[in-house]
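Design a sequence for this backbone.
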């Protein structure tokens, strides 16, 4: 009989290879952020840290001025992206959990009609809604505002569907017991339904935070001021029209900085994220 460590060896080898494949571009960006633009441009960059690490990151955070391009301070871009990602994640969760709670526990006319209307929005690509959404934001004077960046992206049919399915798993006996104890709808939601859904909330928060952080198309349309740009837009604009116009050391420094907030969110909420995905506490 083959020992268990040997049986698991192929799986471990595959996982190690996958980690190396996915981690190498990040490592390459980290190394590139420690060298000057000339070394990278000549293709002479070694795979070890260079002498310009602190200088490049300081420049990216405070000025973003390279030899060929003048960007926008990355600290401003990171703040804009952080506020946008947090607002989208929290807004989506609040709207989704409230709408799902109403659909799951209340009986009102056209309840399922509204649910299926929400569900059908999953079949509409984002590009289909871009033009009318932009028109509405423009008419409301929300161009170059955090409200314009975040409000159109807060509605989430996926979140509503997931929370509704979770609420349907709550036993009817628990609902009846809460009613006997005198708990109204808001009390039941706050004291029972919401605590039970905490792992789902955590898992969805991680996913939605990364979703908001990586937004490109909508921020590109809704912002015309450099002070409102997100980190994704800022990095793209740092790239010139040709190879000779690109300060790769500045771009790689900004890219590594842009990776830090999502990575920290995943690490800090890893335990809750996994529990929410495997549904161990339902």
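Sequence:
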């Amino acid at each position: 009989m083959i020992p268990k460590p040997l049986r698991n060896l192929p799986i471990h080898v595959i996982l190690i290879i996958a980690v190396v494949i996915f981690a190498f571009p990040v490592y390459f960006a980290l190394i590139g952020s420690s060298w000057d633009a000339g070394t990278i441009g000549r293709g002479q960059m070694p795979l070890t840290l260079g002498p310009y690490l602190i200088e490049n990151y300081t420049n990216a955070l405070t000025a973003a001025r390279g030899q060929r391009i003048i960007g926008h301070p990355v600290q401003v871009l990171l703040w804009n992206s952080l506020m946008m990602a947090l607002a989208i994640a929290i807004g989506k969760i609040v709207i989704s959990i409230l709408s799902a709670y109403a659909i799951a526990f209340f009986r009102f006319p056209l309840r399922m009609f509204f649910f299926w209307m929400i569900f059908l929005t999953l079949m509409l690509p984002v590009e289909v809604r871009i033009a009318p959404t932009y028109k509405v934001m423009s008419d409301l004077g929300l161009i170059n505002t955090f409200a314009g960046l975040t409000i159109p992206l807060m509605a989430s049919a996926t979140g509503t569907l997931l929370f509704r399915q979770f609420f349907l798993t709550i036993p009817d006996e628990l609902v009846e017991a809460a009613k006997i104890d005198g708990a109204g709808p808001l009390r039941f939601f706050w004291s029972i339904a919401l605590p039970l859904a905490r792992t789902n909330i955590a898992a969805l928060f991680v996913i939605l935070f990364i979703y908001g952080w990586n937004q490109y198309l909508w921020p590109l349309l809704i912002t015309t001021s450099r002070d409102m740009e997100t980190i994704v837009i800022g990095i793209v604009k740092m790239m010139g029209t040709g190879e000779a116009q690109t300060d790769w050391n500045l771009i790689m420094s900004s890219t590594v900085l842009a990776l830090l907030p999502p990575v920290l969110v995943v690490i800090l909420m890893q335990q809750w994220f996994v529990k929410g995905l495997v549904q161990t506490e339902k």
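The chain has a mean pLDDT of 85.
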